[in-house]
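Quarterly update from the structural biology core.
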Amino acid sequence: MTQQNNSENFLQDIFKKYANKPLESLLTNAVIRKSIIKVADKRIHTSLLKDKKYPQQVQEDKYYMVRNLLLAAEKAFANAKNAPMVRKALINSLLKNNFLESRPQIEQFQKEFNQYPPVFLTIGPGKLCNLKCTGCYANSSSANSEKLSWPVLNRIVREKTELWGSYFTVITGGEPLLYKDQNKTIIDLAREHQDNYFLMYTNGTLIDKEMAKKLAEVGNITPAISVEGFENETDARRGKGVHKKILEAMENLRSVGVPFGISITATRNNADLVVSDEIIDFYFKQQGAVYGWIFQLMPIGRADCLDLMVSPEQRLKMFRQTQHLVKDNKIFIADFWNSGCVANGCISAGKSGGYLYIEWNGSVTPCVFNPYSPVNINNVYKSGGTLNDVLREPFFESIRQWQKDYALNKKPNEMGSWLTPCAIKDHYGMMKDLLIKHQPKPIDEAAQEALKDPEYQNGLEKYGKDVAEMIDPVWKKEYLKAKD
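Predicted structure, tokenized:
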């Protein structure tokens, strides 16, 4: 049984106690809401520690993150007391559909694939952006107008729901709020799929009062706003005056009760700052963010130099500080590399509980930082296929097999480190072999050049080895409990 299903079962048991009352009326009562969270907290902790499939410290890491997710959801619900559609979406789209309701699609998928389906998709519907940020993995700007057609975008969301029982969708870009096709926007997408809850990565500069009101009215979108630190750091990467617009966006969202979070790109220049108590206090306490995501810069896109990557020493320091923020400060903040234990390692390539990425031209890649595609969703649909056919691509199957061989199918004391989980950044030598074997298409010029650049390849392989040398002792001592 997966961790996701463990959490679902216990939440379902808890709410059975209150089966004679409407869920919305229960959660509207702050006392009952906090009581439910308290019970869920204890039961999930007990359940996780009973699971001996993975090291106990891995299970502890999961517990703290799930606990903080519950607290973040409670904060979002409390802040939305004057936003009925936001509360409705939190209850129905997020809580019920993702955790409480049975999903027959999952059972059917298991029979066909012998694994649980991906939990979500990340979709970049359009490349167009009003900013030009240093090191953008998407290489976006105002000059790029590529986009998915509305019928294809709409079908992708509908199909993942019908085939996978997936009610969570991540939207990225480009700048998603600039997407428009057949007079349809991201707001229309969320309105069309009220059963889904949408996490939208955005630079925040377009969230004026009118846009905030639209987000409150549709209810099922939470913006994750990109910051690089305080004003100086953010403006240095994103442009002068951007940070002030971000703070205005946050104020606009607070005023209408729309929950939002922050998205941080960590580089060698800001690695210590972005996980500091000062940054967290500023955005979570003063500005009202309810969650945070950390992306350590991957040198793809305009990041053609490895020097901007977080150093191995910085990565270890970030790991320790993130542990502190999650465990002690009870902040829901996840680093897509340092928080690998929470997700059972790499979540790319359509892994059970993981995801795939579909970008504006229809190319499907293992994740947003692995810019190589064996298939295009437009061609799949034209030939009568579905998202399930995409999952069968040998390139994706090979990555999923590596995930199993590396850790998922190993005994707890033999697992590869989930502190270095990334298939392309931490294990580039392995990924290079798969790229040579399967010949997926680079999605842009930068990805193409990376395949021809031995300095880049050798540098990324060395980075993975240096990180492992720095962090493997932590995995062995604290997770595997290996004796010196």
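The two ends are 33 Å apart (CA to CA).
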